[in-house]
Amino acid sequence: MDRFSSTTLFPDTLAGTRDDLTEQLTIIWEQIKAPLIVPLLRIAVVLCLLMSILLFIERVYMGIVITLVKIFGRKPDKRYKWESLKDDVEIGNSCYPMVLVQIPMYNEKEVYQLSIGAACGLSWPSDRIIIQVLDDSTDPIIKNLVSMECQRWASKGIDIKYEIRDNRNGYKAGALKEGLKHPYVKQCDYVAIFDADFQPEPDFLWRTIPFLVHNPQLGLVQARWKFVNADECLMTRMQEMSLDYHFTVEQEVGSSTYAFFGFNGTAGVWRIAALEEAGGWKDRTTVEDMDLAVRASLKGWKFLYLSALKVKNELPSTFKAYRYQQHRWSCGPANLFRKMFMEIIRNKKVSLWKKIHVIYSFFFVRKVVAHIVTFVFYCVVLPATVLVPEVEVPKWGAVYIPSIITILNAVGTPRSLHLIIFWILFENVMSLHRTKATFIGLLEAGRVNEWIVTEKLGDVLKMKSASKAVKKPRFRFGDRLLLLELATGAYLFFCGCYDVAFGKNHYFLYLFIQAFAFFIIGFGHIGTFVPNS
């Protein structure tokens, strides 16, 4: 304790008015660096290296599995029984199961016609399918438009139900839960769910329902997302790279090994019996889809992912919408992990290996470690070693491991490999929000249950860039200046300058480029609608 006495920390030389502020700060820094900063930074480096190793092992494992699946793996119709459903002359269409199609929406002015039209265009015996539009819109004009669209399809002979609530309790989960309570749902065996911007192909049900009919152990069949606006701008290309890895690798590996993966909340078909046995929809987190999937898996139900079946949908094409989406997708899983950890441990219906897979691989590494290590290590700890040369990061941890992880992540989108540098910079910036959201979820802090519907533009996408050139948006301080990004960018820039002047680690090029990326987004100049090649 003597080392931290006031005489040591604040020597008499600081009292002299002749010493300028810079010299005083330098003296304080030198006094606290050795006994406090260096040990703490070394601990942080060790923890970050451990997390990097965990993430590296997970990525390599999934890379090996997906390679084996692609080379030797059997297709879904070989792993599970699949036979096309045929007419029965005696009982007619009664041989086909009754299917409910749910479309939850909230003020979806730009896309409601697309989703309703696609659902009503699904090929299935007309007397064996019910379209259910769950409209939580608060705008009376949009409500009226959606209602009229449902009436238009009903006049064509489509069995379509327009359902509204007098509140938004539970948000999407609440709407889906209420939708299943209607009397006509009791006759349904399966429920297909599509968000308001999703447009399934007419043969969607013919390619999914037979798996559920012929394999009673299957509770869910999930299709892949196909992004209609991936080429809209550079930001949507970055999103495509991240999500393609999820669908190409994570979902496929989960389906092929443990018959478990996270339900994507849309473009999937549930066996209603499995949904009910799992306890139905719950609104305790912002990832009601993942919550349901985990509970159903713990009941012993298996899931099947069909990578060849793609459903068109839309990526967020404004940075504000993307930030809200990523907050929900990062905060929700972390919060669900906190709530379900002991429930998974105590479960007796699934094997020990599956429990380990769900807790360690699915939740801890992918939903917690992956977010935290990206920001804390590459945007905080690594730059800090420039200011504290006594602490060194081994080259394998600073260069080799992240390079391999990046390559394994990027292989899901071969057409965008030339954009990998931009993707790395963008992902590092987004890791700031994901890390913050992850801690909010783990600690159940402030915005843990914040639910903001992702803005969809639909056909307006083609007109938006032209209108932007004519109409100048009003400058709003909170919308355009992102203080956390600017602060992080300033920190990285300072570390880069220090490295140029005094450093030994020679990270200055990375620091300056990454700082520039934070500044670009921090000043609101992401260039959302800038077209790219």
Task: Please provide a written account of the structure.
The chain is an alpha/beta fold. 56% of the residues lie in helices and 9% in strands. The protein has a 7-stranded mixed sheet with strand order 3-2-1-4-6-5-7, sandwiched between helices. Strand 1, helix 4 and strand 2 form a beta-alpha-beta unit. Helix 12 crosses helix 17. The longest helix has 52 residues.
Key words describing this protein structure:
disordered C terminus; single chain; 18 helices; transferase; alpha/beta; 9% strand; membrane; 533 residues
List the helices and strands and how they pair.
Elements: H1 6-9, H2 21-72, H3 76-79, E1 99-105, H4 112-120, E2 129-135, H5 140-154, E3 160-164, H6 171-179, E4 190-193, H7 204-214, E5 218-227, H8 234-257, E6 268-271, H9 272-277, H10 288-298, E7 302-313, H11 319-346, H12 352-387, H13 395-410, H14 420-443, H15 461-470, H16 477-480, H17 483-501, H18 508-522
Parallel strand pairs: 1-2, 1-4, 2-3, 5-7
Antiparallel strand pairs: 4-6, 5-6
Helix pairs in contact: 2-8, 2-12, 2-13, 4-5, 10-11, 11-12, 11-14, 12-14, 12-17, 14-18, 17-18
Measured on Cα atoms, how large is the radius of gyration? 26 Å
Q: Low-confidence stretches at least 5 residues in length (pLDDT < 50)?
A: 1-10, 13-18, 462-475, 527-533
Strand residue percentage: 5-15%
- Helix- and strand-based class? alpha/beta
The end-to-end span amounts to 61 Å
The description of the largest β-sheet is: 7 strands, mixed
Strand order of the largest sheet: 3-2-1-4-6-5-7
Mean pLDDT equals 88
Q: What shape does the CA trace take?
A: elongated
